[in-house]
Design goal:
Length: about 220
Amino acid sequence: MTTGIVQTETKHSGCFMVSEAESYRSRDVFTVALNQTLVAGQVIGKTAVTSLVTSSVVADAGNTGNGVFTIDGTAPVGAGAKDGVYRVVNTLVSANSGMFLVFDPDGVEIGRVAVGATFNNQIKFVIADGATDWNIGDAFSVTVGIEETDYQVAVLNPTATDGTQRAAGIMWSNVTTDGSNTQKATVVTRAAEVRGVDLTWPAGITAAQQAEAIRQLEALQIIVR
């Protein structure tokens, strides 16, 4: 009696693709970060590897409050920071207090911080109370300059704050890196149709997080069928 042999095909390059733009326009080459095991169809995020400097912190001319804005002296700019002007705007009138919202250079709110507390998401600073309380609309502009920008890709991590929390593309092929060496690899980053059943998501991702990642891919014109 002959026993049947079951063979399982591993994921191969581009196995998830339905269609892509002409002349390979859907693909880019990125550096894969250290300690990554990525497969064809893996949804990935990307993180900036840059030389970052804070150019200036300027208080709006019409501010009422006269407390001091202190940018961190050791790590003023963190992972995921963007080139451009951040806005830090007060939304609360309170004796010896206040609540400042922080907006990135694209106008996206990235957090809020009370007077006297430390804000640490992309930029790091503390706003102190002054002799005159902060008024609604009191604001600061924090200019961040980015030099020698590069990006590395890694598995999507919806709870991260380094940029990998946003879906940036899909791995074209299987790639593994160790703790010492990065590796170049092809990533589908735009204008493509892909099969949802052939995508690989990070362990533990929730349905809501996956739905949000799919929306982020759609914003890149990567349509999940």
